[in-house]
Automatic annotation (TrEMBL):
InterPro entries recorded: ArsR-like_HTH, WH-like_DNA-bd_sf, WH_DNA-bd_sf
Domain of life from the UniProt record: Bacteria
Pfam families, per database record: HTH_20
Family annotation (CDD domains): HTH_ARSR (cd00090)
Name of the protein in question: Transcriptional regulator
Amino acid sequence: MDLRDQASRIGTLADDTRRRLYEYVAAQTGPVTRDQASEALDIAPHTAYFHLDKLVTEGLLDVENRRLTGRTGPGAGRPSKLYRRADRELAVSLPPRQYDVVGDILASAVVRARAGQPLDAALDETAHERGAEIAGAADAAALPRLEGVAQVLASLGYEPRLDDDRVDLANCPFDTLAEKHTELVCGLNRSFVQGVGDGLGGGVAACLEPQEGQCCVRVRTAEGGS
């Protein structure tokens, strides 16, 4: 989902009534009907219906149809429309951040370390594998090597700047963690970016070249990388 779609969905909650309905539905232990929501918020049923369906359209709520009486067959009545919070997660961060990615890498590395692998090696391998996995799922393998890497990293919020023989990364998706744990996160980041390059067929080198106001990693062609 791109930034426009995420911002549009979250922006749906700028309407006071819509936000109150979302918060009410999210706070319940089970799905609720339109009438339950309208009564709880003291608004007209048709108003609740309009806003609930808008939340469904934007992917913030899910809906199901069920007979609340438990009866079936003729005379059982029409199913009721029930609303519940959608399982999907939405977040908008400017500049883009990917703390879920680094969290997944760290958790997986800890599991490997507990099984006996040295932690440094576990971090390096897990980050590299995660980068390669993301690259493998991207439609960028046919591009020239630096262009392909730039395209994948752009989708992850790195804000790449493509030069003749290198890719500068204007944004660090792991910024806050990198400030607090620089050596750990920058090393992990380098392995992750190298994994992206290798996942697209190799020929590039992810190098630790910290620049003021930019990501600590720079991508070069393998001949020029260190």
